[in-house]
């Protein structure tokens, strides 16, 4: 059974990680998905690109599609893209801290 480290937590969702197997679980909005470290990095890069190139749309219009895995695509507003990117950045920073502490 996995013992999890909370990497990010807020009103939008959470990201936790099992240091043993390396898998991450991300809850955002109504979706909960398990990610490999590679999928996590890809999602983070993709969101950074979406945030930089997202059109100026109404904040409540779901206009950004973000593939998370082969079977899951998140449809987000520009505000949700920023919130998810912030949560992923927070999780990545904390994973780096845990990595330093484990050395």
Could you walk me through the main structural features you see in this protein, from its secondary elements to its overall organization?
It is a single chain. This protein is α+β, with helices and mostly antiparallel strands and 103 residues long. It has one domain (5-102). 41% of the residues lie in helices and 31% in strands. It contains two helices and six strands, in the order ββββαββα. It has helices at residues 37-53, 78-102; strands spanning 5-10, 13-17, 24-28, 31-35, 64-69, 72-76. The strands form two sheets. The protein has a four-stranded antiparallel beta sheet. Strands 5-6 form a two-stranded antiparallel sheet. Strand 2 (13-17) and strand 3 form a beta hairpin. Helix 1 (37-53) runs antiparallel to helix 2 (78-102). The longest helix is centred in the last third of the chain and has 25 residues, at 78-102. The two termini are 24 Å apart.
Question: What labels describe this entry?
Answer:
103 residues, alpha+beta, four-stranded antiparallel beta sheet, 2 helices
């Amino acid at each position: 059974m996995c013992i999890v480290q909370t990497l990010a937590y807020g009103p939008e969702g959470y990201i936790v990680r099992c240091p043993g197997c390396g898998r991450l679980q991300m809850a955002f909005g109504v979706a909960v998905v398990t990610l490999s470290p590679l999928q996590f990095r890809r999602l983070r890069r993709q969101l950074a690109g979406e945030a930089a190139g997202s059109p100026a749309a109404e904040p409540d219009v779901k206009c950004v599609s973000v593939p998370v895995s082969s079977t899951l695509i998140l449809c987000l507003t520009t505000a949700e893209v920023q919130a998810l990117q912030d949560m992923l950045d927070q999780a990545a920073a904390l994973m780096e801290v845990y990595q330093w502490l484990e050395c």
